Amino acid sequence: MQLLYSPASPFARKCRVLLREANLLDAVQEVNVSTTPFATDAAVAAANPIGKIPALLRLHGPALYDSRVITRFLDDHGNAGLYPHARLWDTLILEATADGIMEAALAITYEGRMRPDDKQWPEWTDAQWAKVTRALDAVEDRWISHLSGPLDMGQIAMACALGYLDLRHDSRKWRAGRDALAGWHATFSGRSTMIDTAATA
Length: 201
Hints:
Pfam families: GST_C_2, GST_N_2. This protein has 201 residues and is α+β, with helices and mostly antiparallel strands.
């Protein structure tokens, strides 16, 4: 199988961390592609009609896309147990919260990089960041005990979301007032699977 990804994509990073946590690198080749909303890579468009990464090309069956579809498939394929039945709904909610943070943060990135300066809308950007801050506050208030428990996909997704904030929106200082979440992320980021998948640009 092949995973189409870009190093800076937090959604792709979720899949790449899972590959390492589940020891699936021998089964899945990572293929780095360059794609944007305005210039979709041909391989990505062929795999996913929406034109987004990540996409997983399989030996049999259609390509899989949307990171949550891919992570569920890879978790099942590798029998990794990262969607534990005993706390499945909590894991899925936390993953969805992390994905929402990623979506809002990515929208801010695209607003700054893809739109001309005179067409950017600061109020819309502020509204996206408000989504991020509400989600982070909810995690700080309600989810630290889950984050501190046995490894699951909710933790991986949240770590990738926070890593993306550091990569693209560090000036917004997401850690301020969220000491527990910041402390958890500092520890989790030291995992070899996170270090191996960290983007630098």
